[in-house]
C-alpha cells in the first residue's frame, strides 16, 4: 500500500456525497499525468517484489500458534533498525529494505529498499534480499514470535484463542463479524473505515462461502457448529441463519478473512506507456496459471476447504456492491456490476495490432461520462475504457483534510479509486513529482513458505516478462476464458489435475522459433528496425523492445481456433510444434543473454522449481498442507483443523523454512542450510 495519510475519515453517509467529487478530480489528476507523461520514453527496467508476512506467536505450553497483534510496535522497531543500519550491516548489492503495514494487525510487508535493475547480479540477489528481510524481521521479534510467509492463517476466526492477546468478536464494531474481533484490523483509521464503509455500502456484511472439503467422516449435511447462529449484538447477526451461511460451506463474514491473507506481488517499470500496456495484456492470461501453480491456502476458519487458493475469499471480503449491483434486485436505477472490486482483470488495454477487439468479450460496465471525457481529451478507446471502468467504483475512504487537492501536483483522488480496484494486474501511471515511469504490477500469486520459492517465482516472472517483449509473444485469449481459468485455478489440486485455456501459437506470424527483436539503445526510444537475425547477446534484462509491425497479410481464422485446453504441465513445458511452453520461452530468452555458467546454474534452480511444480513432481504448498493435516495423528477425517494440528503445522513450516526439516515432496532434495539455499539463521 502507499503512504498512510493521517486524518479524519468521513462516515459512509458523508463519503457518498463526495464520490463524484473524488471521481471528477481523480480524472483531472490522471489527465495531468497523461498530458505530461504519455510521450515519456526510454525508462529502463526497474522492478521489485512485495512479500507479506504474518507474525505468529508460539505458546508451547498450550500448544497454540496465534497471530501476534504487535504490528505497530514491530514496525516502529523495524523502521528504527532500518534507519540505523550502516552500509557495513547491509549485504553487498543491497539497500536497506522497507517494511510496510498491511490490513491485518499481525501482518508485515517488505520490499527491497530500492528496486532491482535489469542486471544479472541484481536478478541473482533477489533470494538473498528476501532472506535478508526475513532475517531482519525475525531478529527483532520476541523470541517466541516468527514471521511466516504463509497465505492464509488456518485458525483465523475460530472459537477460542487465535490471537495474542485475545479479544472477543463481540466488539467488532467495524465489521460486525461473528468471528473476528475489531483488534484483528490495523488500527490506522483507513482500515476500520474501509471495513465499515464496505459493509454500509453493501447494506449487509460480506458473505464468503467456500465449499468444505468432504472427508471420510465430515458430518453431512455439514452445518457448522462453530457459527454463533443465535448471537444478537449487531443488526446483521441474523444474516448467517437467514441464508448468508451456506450448508456444506465454510462461511466467513468480514474483510479480514481476505485482506488478512499474504501474497507475493511484482512490479515492473516499462520503457513507455505502450510497452506497459503490452506487458499488462500479456500477463493477464498468465495470472490464473500462476495462481494455480503457487496455490497455498487450503485451510480456512479451522476447516479444510475444497479449494487451494485465497482469491475468491478476498474478492468476497471487499465486495461492496449493493444488492442491485449484484443483480439480486433488478431495477432500472442500478447498473449490474458483474464482479467485486477485487477480482480478475476485465479488459485488455494494449493498442498493439495483435489485441483484437473480440478478446474483450465480457460485458464491462464503465462510467460513460468519464469515458467521453477521456475520449474527448484524445485518449484511445481501450485505455479510456479501462480507466472509466475502474471509475464505476465509489471511493471507500475519504479524509476530511484532503477533500480539496491541488490537481496539478497530487494524484490522491486518482489513487483513491485506482488502489481500491484490486485486480490480477495493475496498470500504474507514474506518480507526480517522481522519476518513476509507467509500471505494471503482477498480483495473482500466493506467497510461498520459503524465500527460495518466492525468489524462484519472482525470477521466473521477470524473465517471462522479458521473453514476452523480446520475442513479441502473443498470449491473447478471450477474457472470458481467462475468467474461466481463474475459477479453475482455485480448485483443489488444479496445478496437477486442472485444464486451462491457453493460446496454441504464441510467436509472431511466420515464426517457428523465438527470435529476439533488437532493443532500442539505452535511454532512447528511437525506433529500431525489427531484425530477422538474433541480436548480439545482452548483458542485462532490458526494456524498449519494439513491437513487431503488422505484416501485410495476416491469416485471421476464427478466434476459437487460437486456443485450447491444456494441463499446467503443457503450458509450462510445451505442447505441439508451435508452443514451446512458458519455460521453453524463458530458456530461449536466457540464451540471448550473456550469462556465466555459475549464474545460469542458479537461474536453473529456480526454473527447475517451476518445472517440477508444473509437472507435479513437487507438490504445491496447498497440497502439502492438506496432506500434513490429513496425516496428523489427531486428525479425525472430519475436515476440522484443530489448535494442535495448526500448532504442529506451523512448527513444521518454520523448520522447513530454516532447512532443519526435510520436505522433499515440496522442495528440492538439497534445499537446506548447507546448500546456499539458506542463510542458516536460527531464531
Ligand atoms: P504497492 O503496494 O502500491 O503495490 P509498493 O510500494 O509496496 O507498491 O511496492 C512497489 C514495488 O515496486 C517495490 O518492490 C519497489 O521496489 C518496486 N519499485 C519501486 N520503484 C519502481 C520503479 N520505478 N519501477 C518498478 N518497480 C519499482
Ligand atoms: Mg501488500
Ligand atoms: Mg505494497
Ligand atoms: Mg498498495
Ligand atoms: Mg494485501
Ligand atoms: Mg502491491
Automatic annotation (TrEMBL):
Reactions performed catalytically: L-cysteine + L-glutamate + ATP = gamma-L-glutamyl-L-cysteine + ADP + phosphate + H(+)
Residue stretches of biased makeup (Low complexity): 512-529
GO annotation terms (biological process): glutathione biosynthetic process
Protein origin, superkingdom: Eukaryota
Residues annotated as transmembrane: none
GO MF terms held by the record: ATP binding; glutamate-cysteine ligase activity
Keywords: ATP-binding, Glutathione biosynthesis, Ligase, Nucleotide-binding
Gene Ontology CC terms: glutamate-cysteine ligase complex
Region (Disordered): 511-530, 664-683
Pfam families in the cross-refs: GCS (PF03074)
Pathway in which this enzyme or protein is active: Sulfur metabolism; glutathione biosynthesis; glutathione from L-cysteine and L-glutamate: step 1/2
Enzyme Commission number: 6.3.2.2
Family (UniProt): Belongs to the glutamate--cysteine ligase type 3 family.
Protein name as annotated: Glutamate--cysteine ligase
Organism from which the protein derives: Rhizopogon vinicolor AM-OR11-026
Amino acid at each position: 500500500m502507499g503512504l498512510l495519510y493521517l486524518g479524519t475519515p468521513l462516515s459512509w453517509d458523508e463519503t457518498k456525497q463526495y464520490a463524484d467529487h473524488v471521481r471528477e478530480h481523480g480524472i483531472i489528476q490522471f489527465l495531468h499525468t497523461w498530458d505530461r507523461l504519455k510521450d515519456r520514453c526510454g525508462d529502463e527496467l526497474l522492478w521489485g517484489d512485495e512479500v507479506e508476512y504474518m507474525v505468529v506467536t508460539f505458546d508451547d505450553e498450550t500448544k497454540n500458534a496465534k497471530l501476534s497483534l504487535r504490528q505497530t510496535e514491530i514496525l516502529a522497531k523495524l523502521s528504527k533498525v532500518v534507519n540505523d543500519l550502516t552500509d557495513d550491516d547491509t549485504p553487498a548489492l543491497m539497500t536497506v529494505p522497507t517494511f510496510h503495514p498491511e490490513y491485518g494487525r499481525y501482518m508485515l510487508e517488505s520490499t527491497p529498499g530500492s528496486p532491482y535493475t535489469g542486471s544479472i547480479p541484481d536478478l541473482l540477489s533477489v533470494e538473498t534480499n528476501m532472506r535478508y528481510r526475513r532475517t531482519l524481521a525475525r531478529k527483532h521479534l520476541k523470541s517466541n514470535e516468527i514471521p511466516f510467509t504463509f497465505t492464509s492463517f488456518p485458525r483465523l476466526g475460530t472459537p477460542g484463542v487465535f490471537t495474542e492477546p485475545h479479544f472477543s468478536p463481540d466488539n467488532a464494531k467495524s465489521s460486525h463479524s461473528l468471528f473476528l474481533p475489531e483488534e484483528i484490523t490495523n488500527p490506522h483509521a483507513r482500515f476500520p473505515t474501509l471495513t465499515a464503509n464496505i459493509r454500509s455500502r453493501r447494506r449487509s456484511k460480506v458473505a464468503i462461502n467456500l465449499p468444505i472439503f468432504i472427508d471420510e467422516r465430515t458430518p453431512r449435511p455439514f452445518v457448522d457448529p462453530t457459527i454463533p447462529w443465535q448471537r444478537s449484538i449487531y443488526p446483521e447477526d441474523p444474516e448467517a441463519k437467514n441464508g448468508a451461511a451456506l450448508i456444506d460451506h465454510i462461511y466467513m463474514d468480514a474483510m479480514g478473512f481476505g485482506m488478512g491473507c499474504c501474497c507475493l506481488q511484482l512490479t515492473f517499470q516499462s520503457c513507455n506507456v505502450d510497452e506497459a500496456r503490452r506487458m499488462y495484456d500479456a500477463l493477464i492470461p498468465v495470472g490464473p496459471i500462476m495462481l494455480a501453480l503457487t496455490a497455498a491456502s487450503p485451510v480456512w476458519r479451522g476447516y479444510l476447504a475444497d479449494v487451494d487458493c485465497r482469491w475468491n475469499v478476498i474478492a468476497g471480503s471487499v465486495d461492496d456492491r449493493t444488492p442491485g449491483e449484484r443483480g439480486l434486485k433488478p431495477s432500472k436505477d442500478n447498473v449490474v456490476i458483474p464482479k467485486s472490486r477485487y477480482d480478475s482483470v476485465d479488459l485488455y488495454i494494449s493498442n498493439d495490432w495483435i489485441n483484437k477487439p473480440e478478446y474483450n468479450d465480457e460485458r464491462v460496465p464503465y462510467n460513460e461520462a468519464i469515458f467521453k471525457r477521456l475520449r474527448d481529451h484524445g485518449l484511445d478507446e481501450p485505455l479510456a475504457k479501462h480507466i472509466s471502468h475502474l471509475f464505476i467504483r465509489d471511493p471507500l475512504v475519504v479524509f476530511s483534510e484532503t477533500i480539496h487537492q491541488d490537481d496539478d501536483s497530487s494524484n490522491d483522488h486518482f489513487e483513491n479509486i485506482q488502489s481500491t480496484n484490486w485486480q490480477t494486474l495493475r496498470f500504474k501511471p507514474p506518480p507526480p513529482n517522481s522519476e518513476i515511469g509507467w509500471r505494471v504490477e503482477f498480483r495473482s500469486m500466493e506467497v510461498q513458505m520459503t524465500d527460495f520459492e518466492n525468489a524462484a517465482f519472482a525470477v521466473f516472472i521477470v524473465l517471462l516478462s522479458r521473453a514476452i517483449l523480446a520475442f513479441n509473444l502473443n498470449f491473447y485469449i478471450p477474457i472470458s476464458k481467462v475468467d474461466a481459468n481463474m475459477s479453475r485455478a482455485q480448485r483443489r489440486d488444479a496445478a496437477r489435475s486442472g485444464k486451462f485455456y491457453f493460446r496454441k501459437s504464441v510467436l509472431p506470424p511466420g515464426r517457428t522459433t523465438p527470435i529476439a527483436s533488437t532493443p532500442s539503445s539505452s535511454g532512447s526510444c528511437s525506433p529500431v528496425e525489427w531484425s530477422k537475425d538474433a541480436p548480439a547477446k545482452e548483458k542485462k534484462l532490458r526494456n524498449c523492445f519494439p513491437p513487431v509491425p503488422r505484416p501485410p497479410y495476416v491469416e485471421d481464422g476464427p478466434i476459437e481456433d487460437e486456443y485450447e485446453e491444456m494441463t499446467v504441465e503443457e503450458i509450462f513445458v510445451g505442447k505441439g510444434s508451435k508452443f514451446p511452453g512458458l519455460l521453453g520461452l524463458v530458456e530461449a530468452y536466457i540464451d540471448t543473454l550473456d550469462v556465466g555458467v555459475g549464474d545460469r546454474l542458479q537461474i536453473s534452480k529456480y526454473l527447475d522449481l517451476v518445472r517440477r511444480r508444473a509437472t507435479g513432481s513437487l507438490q504445491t504448498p496447498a497440497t502439502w498442507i492438506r496432506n500434513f493435516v490429513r496425516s496428523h495423528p489427531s486428525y479425525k477425517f472430519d475436515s476440522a483443523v484443530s489448535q494442535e494440528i495448526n500448532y504442529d503445522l506451523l512448527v513444521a513450516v518454520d523448520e522447513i523454512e530454516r532447512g532443519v526439516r526435510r520436505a522433499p515432496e515440496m522442495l528440492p532434495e538439497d534445499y537446506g542450510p548447507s546448500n546456499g539455499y539458506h542463510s542458516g539463521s536460527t531464531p
